[in-house]
Amino acid sequence: MLMRHSLIRESKQIMKNYRTKIISNQEISPGYFRMKVLAPGFGENAHPGQFVMFRVQRSLPPLLRRPFGIFRTGFLPADCDGLPPVEFVEIVYKVVGSGTSIMAELHQGDRVELLGPLGNGFDCTSRQGEKILVGGGIGLVPLYMLAGELIENGCSVRLLMGGRSRDDIFAVTEFERLGVETYISTDDGTLGEEGLVTQVLERKLQKYPAAEVYSCGPMAMLNAVHNICLEHNTPLQVSLEESMACGVGACLGCVVKGAGHTEEKPSYLCSCKVGPVFKSQYLDWSALAQNNSDCGGCA
Ligand SMILES: Cc1cc2nc3c(=O)[nH]c(=O)nc-3n(C[C@H](O)[C@H](O)[C@H](O)COP(=O)(O)OP(=O)(O)OC[C@H]3O[C@@H](n4cnc5c(N)ncnc54)[C@H](O)[C@@H]3O)c2cc1C
Ligand code: FES
Q1: Which domains does the chain have, with CATH numbers?
Q2: Residues of the chain above pLDDT 70, percent
Q3: Fewer CB in 10 Å around end: N or C, the chain?
């Protein structure tokens, strides 16, 4: 049985298909790109943790759109000819296969198609208090808008950034400009502390036991974050990056098992509609870990 959206939480979703153009597409670190796309009216409906389905308009393969988290939305300043400011949405992506390789070759003015904003993002209604954000590699993307909103709400935000090496860490200064305290760790010690980001989380939760945690990254990292938060009785929201085909609840290609799932009483959650952000207690973590055991993740 597919669990009903309203059983978890309800949010208004206003999506639109944009046939639009690239404003810029730049490599920011080896294999990582930032792409700004013209998207009038996008920002007013976008919520931290939501995503877009992206398609390169001029090429047939890949046929399917690809999902990407929303890094930020904003306006380019007004033109000196008196033209109004231009609204954009920005994504950050890592080149991993055919679709992202084609994206990396795109330039300013190239035509693309973008459907969004999609899905249910983070619940960031709580005011004030300590918030710890844990991001692994490309999992840092949805945490930028989230950090901005939490800071606006009067919260104190700490971001634990993890990666395999320094190449996986980006936008540090931008997070800091929001007022976020950042902590960096890399597996190989090429930037920040050497070791896993989850070791830093353990320490921070000892120091801030009343904190709430928000996380996005490879499944192995999310699973470890879930176990640590369970041990500390800490509320956790996670953003899953399950593979998606349609992104709008039509193909059921993105379902994950919900907590308490059994053969007799099945519980399935549609990751693109109910998620991609879930309160961790709603998920079947042993099934998630098993499904993703071969996956290198996106860090
Ligand atoms: C909600 C959501 C948000 C996402 N946000 C971002 C983002 O902000 N930036 C970003 O770079 N990526 C993000 N991803 C992952 C991104 O969608 C995939 O990396 C992309 O679709 C790969 O397309 P491709 O054609 O280049 O690779 P493919 O040729 O389709 O796959 C190449 C390799 O990447 C692996 N792969 C494909 N999709 C995923 C995935 N979801 N997770 C882990 N491995 C995958 C495949 O198993 C394969 O090994 C997100 C995914 C989801 C579901
Ligand atoms: S990706 Fe098609 S239902 Fe979620």
Answers
A1: 16-118 (2.40.30.10), 130-291 (3.40.50.80)
A2: 89
A3: N
Question: Is the beta carbon of 34 within 6 A of some atom in ligand 1?
Answer: no
Is the Cβ atom of 37 under 6 angstroms away from ligand 1?
no
Peptide bond connecting 276 to the previous residue in cis, omega within 30 degrees of 0: yes
pLDDT (0 to 100) of residue 243: 85
Measured from the alpha carbon of residue 244, the closest ligand is 2
Strand, helix or coil for residue 35: strand
pLDDT, one tens digit per residue, over 197-209 is 999 999 999 999 9
Read off the amino acid at residue 181: E
**pLDDT level of residue 58 (50, 70, 90 thresholds):** low
Question: E strands along the chain, which residues?
Answer: 16-29, 32-38, 51-56, 66-69, 72-76, 86-94, 111-118, 130-136, 156-163, 181-186, 193-194, 212-216, 236-239, 255-257, 268-270, 277-279
Burial class (CB in 10 A: 0-12, 13-18, 19+), 30: exposed
> What pTM was estimated for this model as a whole?
0.92
